[in-house]
Amino acid sequence: DSVLIGPLQIGAYQDQQQLLETIVDQQGFVFAGSAIAINPEKIMTARQDSSVASMLQQAEIRYADGIGVVAVMRQRLKRPIQRIPGCELWQALMLRCAEFKVPVYLVGAKPEVLAQTKAKLQQQHVHVVGATDGYFGDEQQVIESIKQSGAQVISVAMGSPKQEQFIDRCKQQLPACFFMGVGGSYDVFTG
Ligand code: UDP
């Protein structure tokens, strides 16, 4: 179930929990692909720039992270749709991964922020199998490290469009994993 706004099809998730259960289901199976938050600004840019539109269309899941987007969806579907803030979704996803013992790999942010993020997640019993800060040189080396870690969920905090571009290249080599671009979420989480 989804709504087309401009060039983007946005998933009509009733709330965060419904989206979480799509990403890691009741048996602990992980959705293969990536998720991206959509706000009105991204829709406007996608309307004007087809390269931005196609970047956003690479994600298998687009969810509404913006009250303007949610308002349009509610009006079209005539049923309750809640806004899903990306940072909150990410934190809830980490806890769901802990619950189902899903291995997680963290990419992005400055080394000290990343180290704090990892430590805090481990305190919450998240199984963090690897981490690479967002200022690496050799991308392929990072992808190999993710492969070897056995991670199933990979969160990438490098800001847009860097994280989306990285995710698209990763996905080709790790087609069974789930990827989420999380912007400045590690900074918020540890701040
Ligand atoms: N970041 C990174 N590598 C980069 C640029 C940024 O890991 O090459 C990290 C940065 O440390 C921060 C996050 O990406 O944790 C979000 O950065 P920024 O605020 O610039 O992006 P925005 O959230 O505005 O898209």
What is the topological layout?
Layout: E1 2-5, E2 8-11, H1 16-23, E3 33-38, H2 40-48, H3 50-57, E4 61-64, H4 67-77, H5 86-99, E5 104-108, H6 111-123, E6 128-132, H7 139-149, E7 153-157, H8 162-173, E8 178-181, H9 185-190
Parallel strand pairs: 3-4, 3-8, 5-6, 5-7, 7-8
Antiparallel strand pairs: 1-2
Salient structural properties:
191 residues; alpha/beta; Rossmann fold; 2 domains; six-stranded parallel β-sheet; two-stranded antiparallel ribbon; 9 helices; 19% strand; globular; binds uridine-5'-diphosphate; transferase; WecB/TagA/CpsF family glycosyltransferase; glycosyltransferase
Question: What would you note in describing this structure?
Answer:
Helix 2 crosses helix 3. This protein has nine helices and eight strands. The chain is globular and about 45 Å long. Helix content is 48%, strand content 19%. Strand 7, helix 8 (162-173) and strand 8 form a beta-alpha-beta unit. The chain has 191 residues and is an alpha/beta fold. It has helices at residues 16-23, 40-48, 50-57, 67-77, 86-99, 111-123, 139-149, 162-173, 185-190; strands spanning 2-5, 8-11, 33-38, 61-64, 104-108, 128-132, 153-157, 178-181. It folds into two domains: 2-77, no CATH class; 86-190, Rossmann fold (3-Layer(aba) Sandwich). Strands 4-3-8-7-5-6 form a six-stranded parallel sheet, sandwiched between helices. The chain has a two-stranded antiparallel ribbon with strand order 1-2. The longest helix is centred in the middle third of the chain and has 14 residues, at 86-99. The protein binds uridine-5'-diphosphate. This is WecB/TagA/CpsF family glycosyltransferase. It comes from Alkalimonas collagenimarina. Keywords: Glycosyltransferase, Transferase.
